[in-house]
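Fold this sequence, please.
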Amino acid sequence: MVLRASTIIITVFLISPFLFLFVDIDWPFIISIIKKHWQSDFHWTSLKLMALVSILSLFWAIIPAWLIASKDFFGRSILSVLHLMPLCIPAYILAYVYDGVLGAYGTLMSYTGVYFDIKNIWGLTFVLSLALYPYVFLLTKISFSRQSYDLINAARSLRQNRIQRFAKVIIPLSLPAIIGGLFLLNMEVLNNFGAVSFYGLKTYTTEIIRLWNPMDLSPVKYLGISLLLLLMLFLILDYIYFRNKEVYESSGANVGYDRNKLSGYKNWLAFFVCLLPVLFALVLPVCQLLIWGVPLFIEQLDSGFLELIINTLAVALLACFVCVLLSLFLSSIKHMLKEPWIDKFSRLWGLGYTVPGVLLGVGILLIASDLSKLLGIGLSLSVFTLAAAYTLRFNAVSYNALDSAFKKFPLNIREASYNLGKNKHHTWLKVDLPLIRPSLIAALILVFVEIIKELPLTMLFHHFNFETLAIRAYILMETDGAIYEASVPSLIIIFISFIPIWYLNSKSQ
């Protein structure tokens, strides 16, 4: 009974920010406000940005994903890992790096006298697509590798050429994965603040942060409701499109287990096609940051900077441990009790990650504001409120990692423990926990990396006595003449993120 009650309480805690958006609102007034929001410039800029970034991300992701999944060529294994590494570089860092490389008085202009004004929607599209295309690449590559050669050979027997087979067989079979990757990508586009603000555009997130005022939260509340209803519209359209469509995996030989070996010019062509996104999204930005940051590293590494690193690591470790403990409890309860209502509740546990973080932040601010009035203490800008926001935001990351680990358990392992007279709690401690230890470590690492990079939530809960590396990098990149100094906290963010991601990839290999 205690476990079931705890599950309900935790579920309410995880969805409470979204419920608070709809507390004490005047619906006729809200409808008029939503109409006004949906006709505004920031609404249409958000939609255009989502569409443009999606298109360019498909360009970066689809062909490399197919080549790496289905072909064997020089450098394939290392490129498969490197295509995930751009996730270590937050979009706001890429934004100011490319402005420093291509913009006026930048690196390109110093050598050639030529520069490009990229502080517009087209430049932002380029930057965001480089930062976010790995979401599409990863899911699409997995889907491609599981496709059956039987279907491809059937299309070949019908005299379909390579382009026709790719367009009519391979892409349609992978469409759910592609749509899933694009959904995650577009949530990140809507959530982005640093890059959008730096390039001078207005979206829902920049407006929410601009209008945020602890004394009057109603403007950001109305914006949050408008954004949530927009997301619900997208989810409804997604459901309508996929409701009568099913994709089956054939039992024949899969593409990923029988790759075609390329030779000659095809080998090198595949290598350079897959290398191109990595060069733009990873190699060039990191090299430029090193050129800027290394000479300034010793100069900036003082006690204040060390405090920044400690603040960042402290709040990230606090939040990721709480996240993983919550997810461990929820996933364990789900698989121990195996009750239908818990399975239905589990669909709500990842809600915080499927919406822009700034929307979650608005709900948490509303709760913190009401609690502050009730208790007479300031909670809205406390470190613990920020850690709670991180927990609600990234719980889905750790939960999915642990839930998938539990699903892979052979049933006879638990049954053997029960037959030996051990109860469920003893079995969980001595059997389940050791078996999920690798997934537990992976969950900790993934949540930790996400928190280190997070900017919009940190900006919402930022106060002057507590800064993180992300806040410092953003402040410096927005300060005239301090763009080079921003490279030092940026490099540390990338370095902290890079090591665990590389570790996870090496373990998976």
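The chain has a mean pLDDT of 82. Strands lie at 71-72, 260-261.
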